[in-house]
Amino acid sequence: MAWLETSVVACKIVCLCIEIFRGRCEFLFQKTSIFLLQVVVDSFKKIVVLSVSRNELPF
Predict the structure, then answer these.
(1) pLDDT level of residue 38 (50, 70, 90 thresholds)
(2) Record's superkingdom (predicted)?
């Protein structure tokens, strides 16, 4: 019976590691997507500012 308890504990540890890893991945993904969104917005602002200063809006 001892090996059964050990395998249950090992399974719980593995599940915990997977949950932690998943949480970190989601956190990193959120950080990355927020950063990419900021980059896109910044570049769009630059395009608009340049176009306005030249009086030639693309839309």
Answers:
(1) very high
(2) Eukaryota
